[in-house]
Design a protein that fits this description.
- 52% of the residues lie in helices and 14% in strands.
- The protein has 137 residues and is an alpha/beta fold.
- The chain has a single domain (2-130), classed as 5'-nuclease (Rossmann fold, 3-Layer(aba) Sandwich), CATH 3.40.50.
- A six-stranded mixed beta sheet has the order 3-2-1-4-6-5.
- β5 (123-124) and β6 (127-130) form a beta hairpin.
Amino acid sequence: MIFFDTNLFLYAASQAPEDCANRGIASQLIADTEYVISTQVLQEFIAASLSKKRLGISETDLEETINLLTHGAVVQISPPMVRHALTLRRRYQISYWDAAILTAAAEAGCQTLYTEDLNHGQIYEGVKVINPFLTIP
């Protein structure tokens, strides 16, 4: 299974012209991949959609996206996962939020995490990070 971070859904929903290339990549991945997300991804998507006006995500688009995302596999964040994320944050010197995403991916049994927020190709406790927006020659 593959875990998707929030940025894939933000790019897919973005109406900003500068996000056009990433919108295509994200939309294709979302359409073609069986993925897992967490409640954190849902919350981050809502927060960014409402606060980042440059994305041009309407209330209708926001609600439709959340309705679609909640029909798939969603990991609920638990207190032990929060504690584990704190451990990963210290171990890898990453943000708590990135550590929480890694923890949720591992909890779901995902071996791959698609995100642009961590080191492409690095394996964090069995979860390999792939940045789908890198142009690799």
